[in-house]
Design a protein that fits this description.
This protein has 648 residues and is mainly beta. It contains three helices and 65 strands. The strands form 21 sheets. The chain has a five-stranded mixed β-sheet with strand order 4-11-9-8-5, with no helix packed on it. A five-stranded mixed β-sheet has the order 15-22-20-19-16.
């Protein structure tokens, strides 16, 4: 920026200077009149366009102008200049007066150039600030101003200036938070003119926290008793009125109450928890300053039970206890609690009888019993029954089992009776031994059809059709209505099947003894032994087979077995056979009557049922020669229809 002379010396000033010089010359007759020097118009004095305020009027000359008017005889003169603002204060365009002076050996011969007036500016001085600190926290108050703990020390104020620095700090927002950004802004105050000569310190940054505003919990109403529910929750009846919220903030509260212990008890301590809600709730905290202790009670929880099952009938045992089959399902308990029930049932008396009252009494077990009340006693029924125990008459039959025979045939149904001397049988079980089960016998149970007149009941057993002959055993269990049981063993035999018996002729039945299995024989007709019928065959003297035929055999010294009966329904025959003599001596005469045909077949069997002779003849008479046969009993059969037993 160039500086120019804005003002020239006036004629009056020149005249004044001339007069001054004349005066001086007049007073000093020895001095020559000085010459007026000037500044070159092409090499003028220049100053710094601006300076920073320093409290003085001095200006900085950057270029001192070049003198003109110096003559060659007196060249030793030097120009000096001093520049001053009209005042020291800040300004953009200010007058600067440059005052010249001369020095040097020849300076007495000259007058200095006339003062120049230039233009310049004074810029404000920047103040710096060190050491300002912030408070670490402030309480939420809806504003952004941050508290300043210490105002720092300003640097750069000219001594003597009445200028001071103030500061203000502000958060970015007014909300609660930690280590929030804070901007510190500085301002100047004091002498207004002097303050204008400075720039305030630049804004600074820092951090501080806004902590929630404290609200105080109101008085709360609560329920002072409850039934045990497994938790510590206490019902709040009145949450109270919250105060202290700043205007415009949306803040409200809720309250929860809790027992110090979830279990049954009186004077349980109750504490409250307050929670704030609403758009600005995070800017607040709530505290309970109440010192009063709150108490409430928890009462036991009543249990109920459903579905209990009690056996309403029992066998007399001298006491009144009834059997509890199922104690029932408890209800109204808290899931996860260690709680259960036991039940005891009792009759109104231990005596035998019907229509007896049974009362069910419940007790609690488990770690949580102190929190519950047991279900109330209940009348389970008024139709209980105590009955007499079963006693089997072991003097009847075999251990109380009565049967017409202890021998049974495969595929048949065996009927046996059980006799009791006390009590009323209700059911029976038949448990067969492993040997019988291997032959197809299956355990079973059935209800009794008890005959009070005979004190007995019948049991019906189906024998497997293919079971092997032999001796077997079973265990008969008899129970009453109370399911009390007594038992007795029962042994039985299975006979050989009647397939061992064959009809040889119309009037002869024989045993199949081809393997010589059997040694002795006793024939039975309709269940009765036949006197003298001890051969492997039996010829019915009636001339035909009619009835049930069976045989008691023996295959060894202790292997006596029945062969099951075979039934025949033969009718009397008109044909007859006569043998004479009988016993036979070498020969005997056979005479026939009632036969239609003339050719006849004679078959002779020995006592073992083995055929020893077979021949034919014509007519009604035939002489049988037995000369070469051994002594013994033989059976003669004609045409497979008529038989006769003879001896030799």
């Amino acid at each position: 920026m160039k500086n120019y002379h804005h003002f020239s010396a006036s004629s009056a000033k020149r005249q004044a200077l001339s007069l001054l010089c004349l005066f001086l010359l007049g007073t000093g007759a020895l001095l020559a009149q000085p010459s007026q020097l000037s500044i070159s118009s092409t090499e003028m004095t220049q100053i710094a366009p601006t300076k920073v305020y320093d409290g003085t009027t001095s200006a900085i000359i950057t270029t001192l102008g070049t003198l003109t008017g110096v003559d060659a005889t007196h060249p030793n003169v030097i120009l000096n200049g001093v520049a001053n603002y009209t005042d020291p204060n800040v300004g953009g365009i200010k007058l600067v007066v440059v005052t010249y002076s001369l020095f040097g050996p020849d300076s007495i011969y000259y007058l200095p150039p006339v003062n120049d007036t230039l233009l310049g500016g004074i810029d404000p001085k920047q103040i710096t600030m060190y050491g300002t600190t912030l408070d670490t926290v402030k309480i939420y108050n809806q504003g952004v101003l941050a508290p300043i703990a210490t105002l720092g020390t300003p640097y750069g104020i000219i001594t003597g200036d009445t200028v001071f620095v103030s500061a203000s700090a502000a958060f970015d927002d007014p909300y609660v938070g930690t280590n929030k950004n804070v901007t510190i802004t500085y301002n100047l105050y004091g002498n207004p003119i002097q303050c204008a000569n400075y720039l305030p310190p630049a804004p600074a940054t820092g951090t501080s926290s806004i902590v929630p505003r404290t609200l105080y919990a109101p008085t709360v109403g609560y329920q002072n008793t409850k039934v045990y529910d497994g938790n510590t929750t206490c019902s709040v009846t009145d949450t109270g009125t919250l105060s202290g919220v700043l205007p415009g903030d949306i803040v409200y509260h809720s309250v929860s109450a809790a027992y110090n212990n979830p279990h049954v008890g009186t004077l349980r301590t109750v504490s409250f928890t307050f929670t704030l809600h609403g758009d600005q709730s995070f800017n607040y905290t709530i505290v309970d300053t109440t010192t009063a202790i709150h108490f409430a009670s928890i009462t036991p929880r009543q249990l109920s039970v459903t579905g209990a099952i009690v056996q309403t009938i029992k066998t007399y045992d001298g006491n009144d206890t009834a059997r509890v089959i199922y104690e029932g399902s408890i209800a109204n308990y808290i899931e996860g609690d260690d709680i259960d029930i036991t039940a005891v049932a009792t009759y109104d008396s231990p005596d035998v009888g019907i229509n007896k009252t049974i009362i069910l009494h419940y007790s609690l077990i488990g770690a949580a019993i102190s929190d519950y009340l047991a279900p109330s006693d209940e009348i389970y029924t008024t139709e209980g029954k105590i009955i007499l125990p079963i006693v089997i008459d072991t003097t009847a039959g075999i251990n109380g089992i009565v049967s017409g025979s202890n021998h049974f045939c495969p595929g048949n149904t065996a009927t046996i009776s059980c006799v009791v001397t006390q009590g009323t049988p209700f059911y029976y079980n038949i448990d067969f031994d492993s040997e019988a089960e291997a032959q197809g016998f299956v355990d079973f149970n059935a209800l009794c059809n008890f005959d009070t007149a005979t004190n007995s009941f019948n049991m019906f057993i189906n024998l497997p059709a293919n079971c092997a002959a032999g001796s077997y055993s079973a265990f008969v269990i008899v129970g009453n209505e109370a399911n009390d049981e007594v038992g007795t063993p029962w042994n039985f035999n299975v006979n050989l099947p009647n397939t061992y018996l064959v009809q040889v002729f119309n009037d002869v039945v024989s045993i199949d003894n081809r393997e010589n299995r059997f040694n002795t024989f006793q024939w039975y007709l309709n269940g009765n032994p036949i006197e003298g019928a001890t051969k492997p065959y039996y010829s019915d003297p009636r001339g035909y087979l009619n009835g049930d035929y069976s045989v008691l055999t023996n295959a060894g010294t202790a292997d006596e077995q029945f062969i099951c009966p075979i039934t025949f329904n033969g009718q009397p025959q008109s044909k007859s056979l006569l043998v004479n003599p009988n016993p036979v001596v070498n020969t005997t005469k056979i005479s026939l009557s009632g036969f239609d045909n003339c050719l006849h077949l004679i078959t002779v069997y020995n006592s073992f049922g083995t055929q020893v002779l077979r021949t034919t003849f014509n007519g009604n008479e035939f002489t049988l020669d037995m000369t070469n046969m051994p002594y013994g009993t033989y059976m003669i059969n004609v045409d497979g229809e008529t038989s006769k037993t003879i001896k030799l």
